[in-house]
Structures are given as structure tokens and as C-alpha cells.
Design brief:
single chain, 283 residues, alpha/beta, Rossmann fold, 9-stranded mixed β-sheet, 9 helices, 20% strand, globular
Length: 283
């Protein structure tokens, strides 16, 4: 890892790193907020996955999460959303919803995407190994959350790895990518036309299949312009009800899909994870 920047923030340190990813076959960046409690103890780790078009810096700059992470004594890790580089294949039509900036946190099996687009392995294995080797955190006490495409990533990764994460939460997640335009486009390119293979990266399908229960919190703005066509939060509510899967799904009146929405409720999400992490030693 190479440290790109290190800035004092909210009594802690906001850092950014670059490294060579073997999993993605490219150079990558990720950001880490180190809270002040590291001086006294090992702190738990909360991974954030961003949405379409974002990098590791969108959340760091816009969400206002560092203040709450400092209050609760939690480290924040924010990776990029896809592989990067001139050699990495992109959307031939240069659209925002596929290719670079839109890795969908899965392992692509279809060429040419399969050469680089292994974001699932990157988030689950390679990045945590880097963080474990570089930071003296409590790496056995981990949770995950995200927004939109990243909410989809956080939910599916947590559900596919029972016992790995203490809790998961999401803002405006794509809960059923197998049945909405964003997901259908990405999955058909990354995974091929066999829709049965898509279910491994579909939150509603995983819930219906009996995924192990863990604390889940979802916030969805009622004025989100993507709600009806792309997000369809009601499908997750239906899947959870049918599977008797306990989840807290909140509809927030008047909020949209932006980071204004995330910044408004990020404190409650970090508090939710802090409780699940058994992290009661606050500032």
C-alpha cells in the first residue's frame, strides 16, 4: 500500500491509499477513516460500498460520517466501485450504469469483463487482507453498509457470508437487480443470459433462499426518482415477510437518492452498527 493522503478530521485521521490489486489486475484506491480511539484500543471496522459513478472519495467527502465514527470509535473503510485503468473494458456506449464505476460487487464470468471485474472477491477477500495487514483494528468485529448499487453490494455480500459481518445496512439499495433495468443490463454483460446465475447476487433471491439472519437496516427516500423503476424496495419487504426474515425497512418522507439523504441519516446507521458490533465505549 502507498499512502496518498492523510488529513486530520473529526479528532481522527482521514487517509487514502493506492495499491496494486491482483484480483482486479489494476491499480486501485481506497480510503480509511481512523478514529481517535485507536490510541487506546482496537476498534471495529465498518465497510462502506458506494453507488454508480462513485469512487472511494464520494462518501468520504459528502456523507459526514467521520464525526459519528469518531463518537462511536469505529474505523471506516471505503473502496472504489470498480476496477480502473486504460486496459479495463468499459461500457461500449459509455453509459454510466455499466463498466467503470459500476462493478456491481460481483465476479464477472463473461469475457471481456471476467478479466478484471471481480469486485466481490476484492471486497470480501483482498481488501480486508490489506486492511488487516496495515491497521491494528479489531478485524474480527466487522459490519458493512452502502448506497444504491453499493447497498445491493452490502446486502448480498453480508447475506452470502454468514458469520462474517455483525450487521448490514443500506440507503436506497437495488434490492432485486435480476428484475430491474440497471441489474438486467449489468448482469447480462457480467454473468451472461442464464438468469439462474443472477440469483447469487440478488438480495431478494438470497432472502427467499433462506439466508442466515443478521441485523438489517434499510432507509429509502419516498421522493427517490429511481424508486419505482430501479430500486423497488417493496420487493425486499415482501421477500422478508414471506421468509420471516427480520429487517428494519424505513421509508423517509421527502428524501431523494442523493448524499443529502445519506448525510441526514448516516448517524443513525453508524449507531445501528455500533450496537451490533457491541461497541459501547464511545468518546
Amino acid at each position: 500500500m502507498h499512502k496518498v493522503s492523510d488529513v486530520k478530521c473529526c479528532w481522527g485521521s482521514q487517509q487514502r491509499y493506492s495499491h496494486r490489486s491482483e484480483v482486479l489486475d489494476c491499480d486501485m484506491h481506497f480510503s480509511v477513516f481512523v478514529p481517535p480511539q485507536v490510541e487506546d484500543r482496537k476498534v471495529p471496522v465498518l465497510y462502506w460500498l458506494s453507488g454508480l459513478t462513485c469512487t472511494d472519495e464520494n462518501f468520504v467527502i459528502k456523507a459526514g460520517a467521520q464525526r459519528y465514527a469518531s463518537e462511536h470509535g469505529i474505523a471506516l473503510v471505503a473502496p472504489d466501485t470498480s476496477p480502473r485503468g486504460d486496459h479495463v473494458p468499459d461500457d461500449p456506449e459509455e453509459a454510466y450504469d455499466f463498466g467503470k464505476g459500476a462493478g456491481f460487487y460481483l465476479n464477472a464470468t463473461r469475457s471481456p469483463w471476467s478479466a478484471n471485474y471481480h469486485m466481490y472477491d476484492y471486497i470480501v477477500s483482498e481488501l480486508p487482507a490489506l486492511v488487516r495487514g496495515g491497521f491494528d483494528f479489531d478485524h474480527d468485529n466487522v459490519s458493512i453498509f452502502g448506497h444504491s448499487m453499493g447497498g445491493h453490494g452490502a446486502l448480498t455480500i453480508a447475506l452470502k457470508n454468514p458469520g462474517r459481518y455483525r450487521s448490514v445496512s443500506a440507503f436506497s439499495p437495488i434490492v432485486s437487480p435480476s428484475t430491474v433495468p440497471w441489474g438486467e443490463k449489468a448482469f447480462s454483460h457480467y454473468l451472461g443470459d442464464d438468469r439462474s446465475s443472477w440469483e447469487a447476487f440478488d438480495t431478494c433471491a438470497l432472502v427467499r433462499a433462506g439466508a442466515e439472519h443478521l441485523p438489517i437496516l434499510v432507509d429509502q427516500g419516498t421522493d427517490d426518482s429511481f424508486l419505482e423503476e430501479q430500486l423497488q424496495t417493496h420487493l425486499l419487504e415482501q421477500a422478508c415477510e414471506a421468509a420471516e426474515f427480520p429487517a428494519t425497512i424505513r421509508h423517509q418522507p421527502g428524501y431523494d437518492h442523493s448524499y443529502f439523504f445519506i448525510a441526514s441519516f448516516i448517524g443513525s446507521h453508524i449507531a445501528f452498527h455500533s450496537q451490533a458490533l457491541g461497541n459501547f465505549n464511545r468518546m
